[in-house]
């Protein structure tokens, strides 16, 4: 589909032309995500999927904490190449998927699905529904989804693209068919250019019965 290709080119261009440390969403240490993850006391063999992980340092943290089944999925092959290079030998223990999340075909149950600033790029109701269905099908009953989007007080655009912004009630209602809310937190992200963006992190658990 033409639209998908254009979006993919957008991301390839961003990661090819800019240093990751100069991207607005860059975090030297993904503390907020790790704080949620640490609370869950996941098994080292937990199947973890970072959706739209890009060149994020989350995979560095997860592998250094001993997680053995980490997958990073992103539209941009260039972003994944950068992350792989940084990780060196450790990258061999990670599964890398260069694809659109909407085309994801899970081969096994996910215990922990992480998405910081990828889901909010979906703006059409059909695509948002597709993402929710995918997450519900992929995450095992009792497994977790941590989603971080721009909040309703956050910017209208990210990386030059319009985003969907969410409040707590919006996100909870959106995922309510298959997930229950465990917790949520707003967070101000300081960009490398000293501007501020309000994120909403929400941790959800896959219901055992729909
Ligand atoms: C704002 S960046 C966030 C990167 C990373 N999660 C972080 O927190 O540093 C958004 C990422 O999502 C990826 N992305 C956007 N739409 C996507 C989609 N439909 N499927 C997979 N990845 C996507 C982009 O390539 C980009 O790497």
Protein topology:
Blueprint: H1 2-17, H2 31-40, E1 47-51, H3 58-64, E2 69-74, H4 77-87, E3 94-98, E4 110-116, H5 125-138, E5 139-150, E6 157-158, E7 161-162, H6 168-175, E8 179-190, E9 196-206
Parallel strand pairs: 1-2, 1-4, 2-3, 4-5
Antiparallel strand pairs: 5-9, 6-7, 8-9
Bound molecules: S-adenosylmethionine.
S-adenosylmethionine binds next to loops.
Unreliable runs, pLDDT <50, ≥5 residues?
none
- What CATH calls the topology is Rossmann fold
CATH class call = Alpha Beta
Tell me, briefly, the overall form. globular
Q: How many strand elements?
A: 9
CATH architecture: 3-Layer(aba) Sandwich
Percent of residues in helical segments? 25-40%
Number of helices: 6
**Mean pLDDT, all residues:** 96
């Amino acid at each position: 589909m033409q639209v998908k290709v254009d979006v993919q080119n957008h991301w390839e261009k961003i990661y090819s032309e800019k240093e990751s440390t100069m991207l607005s969403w860059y975090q030297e240490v993904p503390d907020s995500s790790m704080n949620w993850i640490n609370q869950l006391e996941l098994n080292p063999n937990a199947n973890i999927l970072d959706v739209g992980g890009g060149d994020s340092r989350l995979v560095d943290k997860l592998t250094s904490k001993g997680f053995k089944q980490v997958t990073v999925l992103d539209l941009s092959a260039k972003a994944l190449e950068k992350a792989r290079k940084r990780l060196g030998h450790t990258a061999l223990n990670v599964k890398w998927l260069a694809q659109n999340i909407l085309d994801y075909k899970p081969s096994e149950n996910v215990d922990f699905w992480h998405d910081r600033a990828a889901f909010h790029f979906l703006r059409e109701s059909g695509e948002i529904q597709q993402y929710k269905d995918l997450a519900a099908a992929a995450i095992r009953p009792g497994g977790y989804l941590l989603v971080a989007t721009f909040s309703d007080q956050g910017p209208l655009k990210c990386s030059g693209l319009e985003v969907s912004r969410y409040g707590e009630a919006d996100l909870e209602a959106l995922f309510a068919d298959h997930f229950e809310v465990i917790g949520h937190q707003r967070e101000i992200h300081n960009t490398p250019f000293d501007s501020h963006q309000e994120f909403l992190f929400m941790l959800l658990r896959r219901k055992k019965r729909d």
